[in-house]
Here is the input.
Amino acid sequence: MASTSDFKNGMTFHFNNDLYSIVEFLHVKPGKGPAFVRTKLKSITTGKVLENTFPSGSKVEEVRIERRPYQFLYKDDQGYHFMHIETYEQIFVQEETINGAPFLKDGQNCEIVFHAEEERALFCDLPPRVELEITYTEPGIKGDTATNTMKPAKLETGAEIRVPLFINEGDRIKVDTRDGSYSERVK
Here is the structure.
């Protein structure tokens, strides 16, 4: 058990029948009344952020999580198959636990976060930006770059995103895996 004096950013604990991670916290000692801790908590399972206030000295059940490096191998009807980079142990996870699954390509490295006591995969984090190739897009019209117009494009992973008009088929681009948006063209 951990108390509010042990709070730090990134700490994970059980709260309201879910796992939460501390995004930020602040110890407050008002002039009148008892001290308390104001926190922003992010749900590990749903990703929702909520604000909560704990009385000073409250106890919470801390959960140990581990980040492990994995490499994506392939996808089949069971799920997404990964291999641990150092031990070569293979696991599979479901699509809903992967953040940015449409941008995952064969051989790509990522981190899978595990609940240490239960050895259960909580979620999989891709790098913030990945480099992918455009497999299909309509050709851009020369000189039509004055506006911030976007067109649909299909990536090598099968995902579709919107890209600027000057992007052509065969170009390599960087995609933001958090929101699926175009970042930049790779030279």
